[in-house]
Amino acid sequence: MDIELIKELYLKNKEESLFHRYITNDHVSPLLQKRKGGIDVNTIGKSVFGEPIYGFKIGNGNKRILMWSQMHGNESTTTKALFDLINTFLDSTSDVDYILSSCTIYIIPILNPDGARAYTRINANEIDLNRDAQNLTQPESRVLRKVFEDFNPHFCYNLHGQRTIFSAGKTSNSATVSFLAPAQDEICTITPNRKVAMEVISVMNKSLQKVIPQQIGVYDDAFNINCVGDTFQSQNVPTILFEAGHSKDDYARDKTRELIYLSYLVSLDYISRNSINGLHYKDYFDIPENDKCFLDVIIRNAKVEGDNVDIGIQFQENLVDNRVTFLPRVEKIENLNELYGHLEIEASGCEVLAHDGKTLKIGYENVCVILNNEKILLLSK
């Protein structure tokens, strides 16, 4: 599918009411109500705190694709891109009807609405739903399993977001988008359905490389049957993990949102047009494995208590007045030659102090430091 066409479709169909990082049922429920004429929306279950979990189908083709987002409540980029995708499908001028004629897509936009509201990874019972695939102790886990069993998908899209620490390999390239064809056994056998997932990922990677070269990664495929992706893969359903990561200065994840949208359309186009057998899976292994080579800010060549060191700072995400804010926190004071900062500040051997003029310590939290008697903002945007 042509990249420039996808960019045009994105700009035309971007759901402007969804923005930044805090996305809850309050944001998506009105959108689902507005679109009831074009999609079959249902409440398919309730969360621990009784919030509705919505699900809906779009399309009428024979190839069934199950997509779920915000299993981790604070990972909302893929949800925003889902609504951009829905708008595209409902726009009669988008010329993507062939996808819906070939595919039936079942979407759960927010699987963990309690976690989304609290802006936490876990659900209201403090359980990571992505470690509950076997025991099914949580209502949200049981909802997803029932949909999986009833819908009987040919493909699963497990939609997530990742932290700013990840790099595409041991490089200075941020892992802006990452994928995984999860393992389905302890020895990580390259099974036929994993090959199918790998082939689809390879197609997405080929398109993304034209837009963000060398910024795509894959996760370590160590097997954990308690993870949903590993469980569904073990049921012989090709399953793809999507991870929306960081692009420079994109803490709202707007650029990444567009890249995830691109990945959706490229992969759905490929599935709709082809009988995928996994023969073209080998390019998957050209994608570098994610590493953890980044901090949000590194102050290079600083003097702290007389020592020449680097200062590594990571942003803490906090929910304040229904908006996600970022608070810089000092994580490392040492030589950081093997790490990279999304923002790098050169201290040139000068002393760096806390905002109040005191000695900088690990755990210091503030939006600025003092360098050369000037306050330096640590937030790049």
From TrEMBL:
Pfam families: Peptidase_M14
Residues at the catalytic site: 243
tRNA-binding found in the keyword field: no
Cofactors demanded by this protein: Zn(2+)
UniProt keywords, alphabetically: Hydrolase, Metalloprotease, Protease, Zinc
Peptidase M14 domain boundaries: 9-271
Annotated transmembrane regions: none
InterPro entries listed in its UniProt record: Peptidase_M14
Domain of life: Bacteria
Record-linked PANTHER family: PROTEASE FAMILY M14 CARBOXYPEPTIDASE A,B (PTHR11705), SLL0236 PROTEIN (PTHR11705:SF143)
Record-stated family: Belongs to the peptidase M14 family.
Name of the featured protein: M14 family metallopeptidase
